[in-house]
């Protein structure tokens, strides 16, 4: 039986709910974005970073990866996965790799800056990523830390590209203004 298609707004809502449910604040992700992009943009604000986080969460590749990742974490936390995967996920086995693979796949739409930023975050585990990666109690965050890194990396890359677009736009406006000025001067000279 064909089921109705799920609208991406519905999926985005679910993603926001799941992230909140798993104790991740969007502000915490925005803080990582700020740290990643601040050296390149003097005028960067936390609001711009938070906006970018919200925008990348509209992308299906990210939404789907986040839902899959969190679902597996939750199932593992409840002990509902068959062995040996249950133990691998519970232990956050270092050589597992599917968490990073899922996360990297989800950032590809934002290009090489997103991929290299993800690599950096995966290695250095900044802010909330560090908190999630630190094993405490019975919580399983095997996928979540990588998903948060994927969101932060995508939002960072989006800012980098957007900044360049803005600069190019400003340059074009300035060139047009100078062209206009020049033609007015020439026109004026011709009229004398
Ligand atoms: Mg992981």
Fold topology:
Blueprint: H1 8-21, H2 26-37, H3 46-56, H4 60-77, H5 85-91, H6 98-107, H7 111-124, H8 128-133, H9 144-191
This protein binds magnesium ion.
Magnesium ion (MG) binds at residues 99, 142, 145-146.
What does it look like?
There is one protein chain. The chain is mainly α and 192 residues long. 73% of the residues lie in helices and 0% in strands. The protein contains nine helices and no strands. Helix 7 packs antiparallel against helix 9. It binds magnesium ion (MG). The site of magnesium ion has 4 residues, from helix 9.
The major pleated sheet works out as: none
Strand tally? 0
CATH architecture: Orthogonal Bundle
Helix content: over 70%
Return the domain count. 1
Which spans have pLDDT < 50 for at least 5 consecutive residues? none
Determine the CATH superfamily: PgpA-like
Cα(first) to Cα(last) distance is 80 Å
What radius of gyration results from the CA coordinates? 22 Å
* CATH class descriptor: Mainly Alpha
Task: Write a short abstract of this structure.
The chain has 192 residues and is an all-alpha fold. It is 73% helix and 0% strand. The protein has one domain: YutG-like (Orthogonal Bundle).
């Amino acid at each position: 039986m064909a089921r109705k298609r799920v609208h991406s707004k519905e999926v985005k809502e679910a993603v926001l709910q799941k992230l909140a449910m798993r104790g991740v604040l969007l502000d915490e992700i925005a803080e990582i974005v700020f740290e990643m992009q601040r050296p390149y943009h003097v005028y960067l604000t936390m609001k711009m970073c938070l906006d970018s986080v919200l925008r990348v969460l509209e992308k299906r590749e990210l939404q789907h990866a986040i839902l899959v990742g969190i679902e597996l974490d939750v199932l593992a936390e409840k002990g509902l996965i068959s062995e040996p995967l249950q133990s691998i996920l519970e232990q956050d086995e270092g050589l597992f790799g599917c968490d990073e693979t899922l996360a990297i796949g989800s950032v590809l739409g934002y290009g090489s800056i997103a991929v290299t930023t993800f690599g950096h975050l995966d290695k250095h585990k900044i802010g909330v990523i560090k908190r999630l990666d630190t094993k405490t109690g019975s919580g399983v965050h095997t996928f979540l830390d990588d998903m948060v890194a994927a969101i932060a990396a995508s939002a960072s890359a989006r800012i980098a590209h957007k900044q360049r677009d803005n600069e190019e736009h400003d340059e074009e406006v300035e060139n047009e203004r100078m062209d206009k000025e020049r033609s007015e001067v020439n026109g004026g000279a011709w009229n004398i």
